[in-house]
Every structure is written in structure tokens, then in C-alpha cells.
TrEMBL record:
<feature type="domain" description="Ribosome recycling factor">
    <location>
        <begin position="22"/>
        <end position="184"/>
    </location>
</feature>
<protein>
    <recommendedName>
        <fullName>Ribosome-recycling factor</fullName>
    </recommendedName>
</protein>
<dbReference type="GO" id="GO:0005737">
    <property type="term" value="C:cytoplasm"/>
</dbReference>
<comment type="similarity">
    <text>Belongs to the RRF family.</text>
</comment>
<keyword id="KW-0175">Coiled coil</keyword>
<dbReference type="GO" id="GO:0043023">
    <property type="term" value="F:ribosomal large subunit binding"/>
</dbReference>
<comment type="function">
    <text>Responsible for the release of ribosomes from messenger RNA at the termination of protein biosynthesis. May increase the efficiency of translation by recycling ribosomes from one round of translation to another.</text>
</comment>
<dbReference type="InterPro" id="IPR023584">
    <property type="entry name" value="Ribosome_recyc_fac_dom"/>
</dbReference>
<dbReference type="InterPro" id="IPR002661">
    <property type="entry name" value="Ribosome_recyc_fac"/>
</dbReference>
<keyword id="KW-0648">Protein biosynthesis</keyword>
<keyword id="KW-0963">Cytoplasm</keyword>
<feature type="coiled-coil region">
    <location>
        <begin position="126"/>
        <end position="174"/>
    </location>
</feature>
<dbReference type="Pfam" id="PF01765">
    <property type="entry name" value="RRF"/>
</dbReference>
<dbReference type="InterPro" id="IPR036191">
    <property type="entry name" value="RRF_sf"/>
</dbReference>
<dbReference type="GO" id="GO:0006415">
    <property type="term" value="P:translational termination"/>
</dbReference>
Length: 186
């Protein structure tokens, strides 16, 4: 049936939205070192913006330390420059072969700011999921208007769509509470 295909497609879009929110949360600094912090930092490599993880090995030898070991030593100054330009707020230290990023302890104010950012990104994800729901509901209503499906089928489908929406919004809410605890943990 055509309605089931549309519901499956909407569910796929909702899953992708939740994954996107997860990626956004991973790139937020929560006071501990994680290679995901550098996902959004792009280095100019021969004129092409390139993610650091494609130019170097990123390791976490200690909970508050990232070590970046570039495969090409000539790109070291470019990586440093890109980290300084980024919104990470971390100053890199280099010894000529590796770059060390010491993750500073977060202040209470910075933690509160990060929680606000997390909630904002989560709300953007929820809105995206609700938009998917609205679009699907509109399509199903149009099908009912055209006589392709019955009114009972319309109601059943709308209930199913709402259950899907609730499921994925609940997933985002769980991600928010987990990330919030991680940020507020001293």
C-alpha cells in the first residue's frame, strides 16, 4: 500500500534527524577530550577545506588531552591555525611532530551556556521531526480528499504517524538529558 511506503520513508527521515542531533551533540565540548570535538574543524590542505581526521591520527591518551599526529608534517602549522580559528576556545601546543590540545575544565557559566546550546539544537531536531509529520499528514489528507483512502484509514494512519513522531521526539529528549548530565558533571 502507498501509505505504508510513505510512513516508512518518513520514519527514515526521522531516524536521520535523530542521527544529526547526535552528531551535533558529539561536537559539543563537555569538559572531556573526544576526537568528535574536531569534526567541524576544517584545514586548508592544498587549497581544499579538509577535516582534521582525514589528515592526521587523533588520539586521547588522557581524559583531558587530545593528541593530533599529522601524516604529513608540513601541514602542522595549518592544523594549528584551523584550531585557533575554530570556536573550540582551545590553544594548541606543538612540538614539531604532534599537536596537543589540553581541554580546560569548564566553568559553571560555560556549562550553563552549553546546556542552552544543547537544548536549542534538540529543539531544532524536534521541529524537523514535526515538519516531517506535518508533510506526511498533508499527503495522507490529500489522498483521502482524492478518494484514494477511506476516512478510517486516514485516522489510523494519522495515529501511526503521531506514534512515530512521539517515539523520535522521545529519543531526542533522552539524548538531551544524557548530554546535559555529561556537561554538568564536574
Amino acid at each position: 500500500m502507498l501509505v505504508n511506503a510513505k510512513i516508512a520513508e518518513a520514519e527514515s527521515h526521522m531516524k536521520k534527524t535523530v542521527e544529526l542531533v547526535k552528531k551535533e551533540f558529539a561536537s559539543l565540548r563537555a569538559g572531556r577530550a573526544t576526537p568528535a570535538l574536531l569534526d567541524k574543524v576544517l584545514v586548508s590542505y592544498y587549497g581544499t577545506p579538509t577535516p582534521i581526521n582525514q589528515l592526521a591520527t587523533i588520539s586521547v591518551p588522557e581524559p583531558r588531552l587530545l593528541v593530533i599526529q599529522p601524516w604529513d608534517k608540513t601541514i602542522l602549522p595549518e592544523i594549528e591555525r584551523a584550531i585557533l580559528k575554530s570556536d573550540l576556545g582551545i590553544t594548541p601546543t606543538s612540538d614539531g611532530t604532534v599537536i596537543r590540545l589540553a581541554i580546560p575544565q569548564l566553568t559553571q557559566e560555560r556549562r550553563a551556556e552549553l546546556v542552552k546550546v544543547v537544548k536549542k539544537k534538540a529543539e531544532e531536531g524536534r521541529v524537523a521531526i514535526r515538519n516531517i509529520r506535518r508533510e506526511l499528514n498533508d499527503k495522507v489528507k490529500q489522498q483521502q480528499k482524492n478518494g484514494e483512502i477511506s476516512e478510517d484509514e486516514l485516522r489510523r494512519t494519522q495515529d501511526e504517524i503521531q506514534k512515530l513522531t512521539d517515539k523520535y521526539i522521545k529519543e531526542i529528549d533522552q539524548l538531551v538529558s544524557t548530554k546535559e548530565q555529561e556537561i554538568m558533571q564536574v
